Description:
The chain is mainly alpha-helical. The protein is built from 7 helices and 4 strands. It is 50% helix and 10% strand. α1 packs antiparallel against α3 (47-65) and α4 (83-101) runs antiparallel to α5. The longest helix has 31 residues, at 105-135.
Amino acid sequence: MEFNFRFGIKQKKHYQNKLCWFKGNYEKINAQLNKIDWNLKLAQGDINNLWQRFADELKIIYEENIPESKSMSRKYDTPWINEESKIALVKKRKLWKKYRYNKNPQNKTKYEEARTDANRLVRKAKYEYERTIAINMKEDNKIFWKFIKSKTKAKESIPCIVDDEGGINTDDKTKSELLNKFFQSVFTVEADSQNAPTLNQRSNKKLSTIEFNPEII
């Protein structure tokens, strides 16, 4: 038995909050910092406590005066991306940004080299990951089916069902009863089973036992 699967990289969008430093109100920040009596604030304590007090005061001030924005971070929904390939992808993105800012031949060459290296490492990591799954499939087939399940787009749950009165049902028990009622309504019962055709016997051999096991498959 042979399997041939083709999968693409699914990229998820992850948003995280970041401070927009270029939109900060630095005049107000300087004014608030000048109002603080630092001699009194940092009069007692060891170096760690003094630094923590200063950092806490600074954090409160810039959180009030520097707005936040949502930025998208790229995370690939690919379990075969290892640390080596992650580093190569980050390097490729940095060189791409550098090339977009200054499109000279040197930056273009560096980006193309980083892109080739990143693609090679990603293909290598994917091959090793799929090879490991294939080798360990007999001992632990859960990993194999988990990998297949992660790449399928089929939904496991049954969607909401509308009954005859127009109501929307979300309960699993109610949905199963409605489906059972529907299939019973379309099931055809033959009135007379005596008119069924007669099939001639073509062989005297009987298949008594059918056995399947993982070793044969």
